[in-house]
């Protein structure tokens, strides 16, 4: 589907961040090598030949903050969910000393709902946010993708998980990148679900991944007090 036929502008109320990113901004301000860790499942790791969002985000942020040294470190492992990701925090997140952590959560809790108790997933997210609180790094939670595998007969489960992720983030005073709402908005703008996934019904398509990364970079650059 050609880009020119699609509504590519992300609605501001779906992507604007509520909270500042002081550690990320400070790192950029002082010209340090700025590290971002992206931790999550296959949406982060990459799947089915589609370049995932972390390398796209790295390129976009280097363009937005020209001259700064920005690396986005991909710590995604396909099939994992918050409990397994939490077990990797020591080495894969804290050990990298990032100024910003993007934690992609919730999708496998719905897609493989027979394997995960939603309460355990939220407990792991809450524990992870508590662990990172007070460390010199900002945190953004990325919620579910809006694709055929997590809507349809699982739409109500997905909505509940999205709401609970937002609640956990609000209690911790961290930002959420509302990927689910953003992609749902695209779908309501007459982009078929089949165009939002990569054909396997779970992972985002090339087009959707590209514009998710663009929306995320805009949210980061436009966060409160982000002038550097």
Can you characterise this structure?
The chain is α/β, with parallel strands linked by helices. The protein is built from 12 helices and 5 strands. Strands 2-1-3-4-5 form a 5-stranded parallel β-sheet, sandwiched between helices. Helix 9 links the parallel strand 4 (138-142) and strand 5 (175-177). It starts with 11 loop residues before the first helix and ends in a 7-residue tail after the last helix. The mean pLDDT is 92.
In short:
46% of the residues lie in helices and 12% in strands. The protein is built from 12 helices and 5 strands. The chain has helices spanning 12-15, 22-29, 42-45, 53-64, 82-86, 89-93, 107-111, 118-132, 155-172, 179-188, 193-196, 206-221, and strands at 34-40, 70-76, 100-104, 138-142, 175-177.
**How many discrete structural domains?**
1
How would a textbook summarize the main sheet? 5 strands, parallel
Fraction of residues in H or I helices: 40-55%
Quantity of strands, as a count: 5
* Oligomer status: single chain
> Mean pLDDT, rounded to whole units?
92
Side by side, the strands of the main sheet go 2-1-3-4-5
Gyration radius, in Å: 16 Å
Distance between the termini: 37 Å
**Helical run tally:** 12
| Corresponding CATH architecture | 3-Layer(aba) Sandwich
> What coarse outline follows from CA principal-axis ratios?
globular
Under the CATH scheme, which class? Alpha Beta
Element-by-element helix/strand order: HHEHHEHHEHHEHEHHH
* CATH level 4 superfamily: SGNH hydrolase
CATH topology descriptor = Rossmann fold
Instruction: Report the β-strand fraction as a percent range.
Output: 5-15%
- Taking pLDDT < 50 over at least 5 consecutive residues as the criterion, the unreliable ranges are none
Structural class: alpha/beta
